[in-house]
Specification:
Radius of gyration: 33 Å
Mean pLDDT: 77
Distance between the termini: 86 Å
Number of helices: 8
CATH topology of the largest domain: Immunoglobulin-like
Low-confidence stretches: 13-31, 393-416, 443-453, 546-555, 557-563
Shape: globular
CATH architecture of the largest domain: Sandwich
Largest sheet: 5 strands, antiparallel
Strand content: 35-45%
Structural class: alpha+beta
Number of domains: 4
CATH class of the largest domain: Mainly Beta
Number of strands: 35
């Protein structure tokens, strides 16, 4: 008996131990996803660029980055740990930031970074040779360039302004150039300026780069006046008066729209650097039962064009199909090649009869601005295999029934009465279901008197709260991002592009503290920042007079915090 009790106790202990082990295995984090990205894809040989490697789980391993030293100099490496709690769930993210400089010019691939058993994807990068420039000022100078000196109507032209500074500056601002000639749409490619280091003739420069995407709307000449940079320069412990440094003016020839390609005489004008077209299905369209819907998504992805210029695709239908298009989804993102626009069309397709249905190919003609010729992005034809419906009605109709069967149905009405009542009941139930569905889809009317604030006001208040909390913690990046989001809602028609521009639109203590944040954000090597004063100033934020008018300039943060 004693042995039996011991054996049973041992069995219970083993079962409990197995449960604990299973719980520990289930609670262990999954394999860490390693993501690598760079701030620019086109870099000059003498310029540095930033590589960020992020892992989304709590790991204590270090990245294996020795392969970077084959083609690049590793100038510096830093690490950031971030922990967030959302709805009781804890997420931990580690980010390693590398400042790299290429050893030679050419096309290279940043190798995968390994952390544990996971690897990031390789990243292609183009390293251009050093340009022979003659700066007008050895310590401070401004360069401007365009990617295409000749373009076409509605085609993207990238305009870059670079401010080189080998000395410390104060009260710096970049005056945007005036553009004349033909009408043009101007889009800022990135929300924030890029900063990096450059070595020219053995001298180290800090570079601030701003990129614009220009879309001329008519043929003719596009004139870009010099970009002006104003600042006070610190030399040998002394500060000069305000000096103005400017770039050279640039002219761009805008050619008219060329004739459409011979194979597509009705092609719409669609210029871009690259175009890709793809499709997705909610399920594989093989053996699709007749009468059951399937969703097809067709996506057009274009680099160098606005989302509003992407062509509208007609629903790709065929005989035996019913196609119901949905509202398209438009998205825009910034890349190293400029604006990247995406248009996603979604269709619900229902096959009527069983059999094979051929979907025609989808063709989108577009003008390649790099190769200067027409090209066609094609989605190949596809065959849908439609199976008979599971509840399909018999093919024999009532009219084809034998006369004797019809007479029998008429002669025995009492026998078919229960089926008739059941059919009527099912029809009424179906109508009630349709009515309930229609009522649920109707938009609910909001009460006439609502005490809630508009959504924009709630969002602005939320972003300010996030900015104050981040400032109290001394988190420069989160404070800057929250303030830029608040500013986009505060001034939607002309949103500020930097913290310095936000400072120019407010008054009081907030203005001075925002200028300190701007200097700390862009100072070399990073500067310790106490955000408690800014947090207090944001509690009583006041807009300045300049916020009611369009300011002529956008401030660039100085290289060094103010004394």
């Amino acid at each position: 008996m004693e042995d039996d009790r011991v054996m049973k106790a041992g069995a219970r202990f083993a079962a409990a131990l197995a449960c604990v082990v299973a719980w520990l295995l289930a609670s262990m984090p999954a394999s860490a996803a390693v993501v690598a990205r760079i701030d620019r894809n086109d870099v000059e040989l003498n310029e540095s660029f930033t590589l960020e490697v992020t892992v989304d789980t709590a790991v204590d391993l270090e990245p294996e980055d020795s392969a970077l030293q084959k083609d690049f100099y590793v100038l510096s490496r830093s690490e950031l740990r971030n922990t967030t709690i959302v709805n009781g769930e804890i997420s931990r993210i580690r980010t390693w930031t590398y400042v790299l400089m290429a050893k030679d010019a050419g096309d290279f691939v940043i190798p995968p970074i390994t952390i544990g058993g996971e690897q990031s994807r390789p990243i292609p990068i183009h390293i251009a040779p050093v340009k022979q420039v003659q700066p007008g000022e050895s310590d401070v100078f401004v360069l401007a360039e365009v990617d295409f000196p000749t373009t076409w109507v509605q085609a993207q032209v990238l305009y870059k302004v670079k401010v080189y500074r080998a000395v410390h500056t104060r009260q710096a601002r970049l005056i945007e150039p005036e553009i004349s000639g033909v009408d043009v749409l101007v889009e800022l490619v990135a929300g924030e300026d890029k900063t990096y280091d450059s070595i020219i003739e053995g001298k180290n420069y800090n570079v601030v780069e701003r990129v614009y995407a220009l879309f001329p709307q008519a043929s003719g000449e596009l004139h870009i006046a010099p970009a002006l940079f104003e600042a006070r320069v610190l030399r040998d412990g002394r500060i000069t008066g305000r000096k103005v440094f400017k770039s050279d003016p640039i002219d761009v020839e805008v050619q008219p729209i060329p004739p459409p390609p011979p194979g597509h005489p009705d092609a719409a004008w669609f210029p871009a650097k690259s175009v890709a077209i793809s499709e997705e299905w909610s399920r594989e369209p093989v053996g699709l039962p007749a009468g059951e819907p399937v969703t097809r998504r067709i996506t057009i992805d274009a680099v160098g064009q606005l989302s509003t210029q992407l062509p509208v695709l007609e629903p790709p239908g065929a005989a035996g199909l019913k196609v119901y298009p949905d509202k398209p989804d438009l998205q825009v993102a910034a890349t190293g090649d400029g604006i990247r626009a995406t248009r996603r069309e979604q269709y619900a397709i229902i096959a009527v009869d069983a059999g094979d249905v051929e979907l025609p190919p989808v063709e989108v003609p577009w003008w390649d601005t790099r190769e200067r010729r027409w090209r066609v992005a094609t989605l190949p034809a596809r065959t849908l295999t439609v199976a008979p419906s599971a509840d399909a009605l018999p093919s024999q109709s009532v009219a084809a029934r034998p006369a004797a069967q019809a007479e029998q149905a008429v002669a025995a009405p009492a026998e078919s009465l229960p089926w008739r009542n059941l059919s009527i009941g099912l029809a009424c139930l179906w109508l009630a279901t349709v009515l309930a569905w229609w009522r649920s889809k109707r938009p609910e009317r909001e009460p006439a008197e609502s005490g809630q604030h508009p959504p924009a006001a709630r969002l602005k208040a939320s972003f300010l709260r996030v900015a104050r909390r981040a400032a109290e913690r001394g988190d420069v990046r989160e404070t800057r991002n929250a303030l830029l989001k608040w500013a986009r809602l505060q001034w939607p028609e002309r949103p500020p592009r930097s913290i310095g521009e936000i400072a120019s639109r407010v008054s009081g203590a907030a203005r001075e503290e925002l200028l300190r944040l701007s200097e700390c954000s862009y100072g070399p090597g990073g500067t310790a920042w106490d955000g408690s004063a800014l947090a207090r100033a944001l509690g009583s934020l006041r807009l300045g007079e300049e916020s009611r008018g369009r300011g002529p300039a956008v401030e660039l943060p100085p290289l060094m915090p103010r004394a």
